[in-house]
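Two folds, back to back.
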Amino acid sequence: MMEHTPDKQDRYSHPVTAIVTGIRDLFRKQAEPLVLRETGRLKGKRVLVTGSSSGLGLATAVELARRGAEVIMAVRTGIPDKGDLVKRRSGSDLVEMVQVDLSDPESIEKMADEVIARFGPLDLLICNAAVVTRQSRQTRNGLDEMFMVNYIAKFLLIDHLVSKGGIRTSGPGLSRIIIVNSESHRNPEKIDWESFGTYVPYGTNKSVSMYGYYKLLLLTIANELSRRLNPDGKVRVMVSALCPGPVNSNIAREAPAIFRPLLRLVFRIFFKSPEKACRPVIYLATSDETEGRAMDYLFLMQRKPMDRKATDPENGKRLWELTEKVVSGFS
């Protein structure tokens, strides 16, 4: 039986309720939060971080580089300035950049091929990039932009890297795939199988609920990815996801102009800085306590059960097959 309560379904369905819920979650005391230790180092590890030109992704790139990783920043803009910024803040020169437009399948595959050719297999992939559009927007492939960037792009990138040997599956230690998700994945009542991938226009009032819906798809496919990468119980690649909580970033940059000053004020006062919000990402990337977990999910700095729709193997299998059909239409 799927989780469902009217209260839960309303928490992320509207911009105002989503903000209030995020603030409430930040002030709710966590029981025995996980500890991020300075001993978690990444020397000799190669890491790709998408959406790392600002906000959570930029802070994550800085901290990973500071801990010794070779960091590859996958960005749409900001080359080379943002890479130079990460070098200065981290004190590391092991920072490279690649350009990608996550709304364009050809750009995603080209970037993945470039990463493999230039750097070799990754030890760690962090899928962070996301967008909240003011209303539906169609990509040149006929998909909703949020559907493409927040869901399909991640499936396409991971699938391409895995199939081309771009994720290390042997050698010392386990490679890790970390997906930045959201507690708003709990809001949708169900996965819409019948109209999956079909562009359906929506306005500002539905934008936040669509964001949560795509996060449900993403977490469902992350669970299926873990099952497919580790089919016999032996963990070859660790798959993790997390909700960092509300972050003071520019993700709401497309909000109506009249609301932007208020949103900036609320974000600055109540939301976490990217430097603090990236802690669960860094924990999943570095901690020995996560070793050997085929699938993991954190809310802030605490493990939390995922919505049952996301962990249902039948949902995962069906979603994977439908997603492959959408992706096959790109070629």
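---
second:
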Amino acid sequence: MNKKTVSREVVTSVGIIGSFAASNSWANDVLFSYDAGNNVWQTEALDFVDGDEFLIRFNASWDGSNKYGDATSKSSEVEGGYELVQGSEAANIKIPSAGTYVMKLYGNHTPFVLVMEKQ
């Protein structure tokens, strides 16, 4: 039997980056924190205006394996969630409407699921 190898990249940060932070504007990630009790990554409350877009990134990397977007297919597993697309072709996620949101990332699903929880 041939030997097989497995490689993995350690995730040191999970962030959201986009046009939602006027002073930031695609410059720096806003980091998620891990909520072990609910097994979910979530952001602080973030303000968005109509037309804002964003992506989810691991390790502040634009590499396709670390970039997640699209969020147009509804999740059948997480109520109110959208399945994320991984890769260099993943489109920006558009905010549904202006307001303050807490973003919740369920990384224990395949594909990953994002919930945009309006406050």
